């Protein structure tokens, strides 16, 4: 699973995900992509599950690009622990995804295989997604 090798600080504030993506909203590598339509945090486990679903359906033909990286540490306190005594330990890593962001791109497979693979991948994510293609294709 994806996570940073090293960070400057161990824990981070929660923050809010507001506005639309100011970058990463166009296809750069592949011919088909999976675009986020809602703001949310996508965990490294969800990214890995999506990647597996896409590559398995493509029967390892073609190429997959992951355009998001989980660089936000999400901390959590254990269950049934009283308030206070500091912030909990880091539980998992997540990527903050804004609407309009291209999360996955694929190339090297037919249009129907690409669409089916991205639909299977979108089912693994906690947000509504849209399949986008390059102008002049599909």
How would you summarize this macromolecular structure in one to three sentences?
By secondary structure, the protein is of the alpha+beta class. It has two helices and seven strands, in the order ββαββββαβ.
Q: Your description of this structure?
A:
It is built from 2 helices and 7 strands. The chain has 138 residues and is of the alpha+beta class. It has a domain at 39-76 and 88-133: Ribosomal protein L16/L10 (Aldehyde Oxidoreductase, domain 3). A 4-stranded antiparallel sheet has the order 3-6-1-7, covered by helices on one side. Strands 2-5-4 form a 3-stranded antiparallel sheet. Helix 1 (44-57) runs antiparallel to helix 2 (111-122). The longest helix has 14 residues, at 44-57. It is elongated. The mean pLDDT is 95.
Features:
2 helices, Aldehyde Oxidoreductase, domain 3, 138 residues, alpha+beta, 3-stranded antiparallel beta sheet, elongated, 4-stranded antiparallel beta sheet
Question: Secondary-structure blueprint of this entry?
Answer:
Elements: E1 32-36, E2 40-43, H1 44-57, E3 63-66, E4 72-76, E5 89-97, E6 102-107, H2 111-122, E7 129-133
Antiparallel strand pairs: 1-6, 1-7, 2-5, 3-6, 4-5
Helix pairs in contact: 1-2
Give the mean pLDDT: 95
Supply the helix-strand structural class: alpha+beta
CATH class group of the domain at 39-76 and 88-133: Alpha Beta
Rg is: 17 Å
Helices and strands, in order, run as EEHEEEEHE
- Helicity range: 10-25%
């Amino acid at each position: 699973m994806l996570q940073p090798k090293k960070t400057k600080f161990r824990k981070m504030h929660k923050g809010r995900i507001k506005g639309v993506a100011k970058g990463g909203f166009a296809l750069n590598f592949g011919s088909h992509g999976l675009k986020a339509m809602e703001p949310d945090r996508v965990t490294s486990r969800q990214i890995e599950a999506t990647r597996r679903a896409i590559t398995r359906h493509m029967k390892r033909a073609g190429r997959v690009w992951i355009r998001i990286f989980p660089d936000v540490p999400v901390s959590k306190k254990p269950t049934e622990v009283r308030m206070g005594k500091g912030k909990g330990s880091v539980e998992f890593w997540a990527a903050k995804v804004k609407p309009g962001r291209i999360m996955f791109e694929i190339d090297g497979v037919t249009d129907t295989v690409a669409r089916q693979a991205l639909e299977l991948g979108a089912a693994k994510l906690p947000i509504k997604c849209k399949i986008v293609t390059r102008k002049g294709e599909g």
